[in-house]
Amino acid sequence: MRPPGSQREWRRASCARWRHEAEDVLTSANTQHLLSAAGVVATADGPILRVRLDRPDKHNAQTPSMWAALAALGDDLPEGIRVVILSGAGQSFSAGLDRRMFVEGLPGEASLVGLAEKPASEVEDIIAGYQRAFTWWRERPVVTIAAVQGHAIGAGFQLALACDLMIVEATASLSMKEIQLGLVPDLAGTLPLVRAVGYQRALELCLTGRAISGDEAAAIGLAITAVPEGQAAAAADDLAAGITAAAPNATTAVLGLIRGAHGRDLAEQTAAERAAQYGRITELAALMQR
Asked: Do strands 143-148 and 83-88 pair parallel, antiparallel, or not at all (unpaired)?
């Protein structure tokens, strides 16, 4: 029987079995520098890595330097991390692209007008580099969780969509605003959006730029739950604790099965299940024989 106390307390106690202290959060000093310069904070708490967009005065507006830092983090995850929680400091998760990029640009970075002066192939390469900040969240053998409060607009919405799981506050506002600027969503958000809510709803959201509340996001399957205002971070912590309470290799095996299911037919998926289960059985048998 579970000991007395709340479910949150029990999960946090389970997570504590893997808790460790480390002087260096990241394995690369260069990654730490990129994160700090771009306004991103990453801290490890045992098997959980918390990544926070930390430009609250700008509503965590995104820049190419932030994307470079996030991409570097994806290539340089600390050893032993099993769950990554992504959040934003202040009132908003992320209000999208830093508006200065549209005309004048940021120091050392091209504006959108400046991109128009480059050859198509070069611009596509530049955008591909930006997209790396958004694609690794479902490619690494870790579970990624977005904890969304306030606004998640455009690039902010796409960054939340990049994660395996999304928790939203009921009062949050999520929108794919690119169409209202004469642009398209180009930061790897369209595929997870279609997979989460289906073709018609995804098309409607992208064609209109309509904002949806956290409650609607949960109702249409975009988020796994909508929580009261101010509780997204705690809910993400609870979820992470529940995930890390399970056997690490079993978690990784399930993650691979579910992530890959969209690209497999029934025969391929059941074969993947059999192979994964054989791996689990042999590992458990070896543990029992010790």
From this structure: parallel
How far is the C-alpha of 140 from the C-alpha of 137, rounded, in Å? 6
63 contacts 36 by C-beta, under 8 angstroms: no
Digit-coded pLDDT (tens) for 112-153: 888 888 999 999 999 999 999 999 999 999 999 999 999 999
From first CA to last CA, the distance across the chain in angstroms is 27
DSSP code at position 57: G
DSSP state of 162: T
User: For the chain, which domains are there?
Assistant: 7-246 (3.90.226.10), 247-290 (1.10.12)
CA dihedral 268, 270, 272, 274 (to 10 degrees): -140
CB of 214 closer than 8 Å to CB of 147: no
> What pTM does this model have?
0.89
Q: Which two tokens stand for residue 225?
A: 């739950």
Residue labelled with tokens 């994964």: 276
Strands (E), the chain: 40-45, 48-53, 83-88, 143-148, 151-153, 165-169, 173-175, 212-213, 225-227
Neighbour tally for 92: CB within 10 Å: 24
How many whole angstroms separate alpha carbon 133 and alpha carbon 162?
9
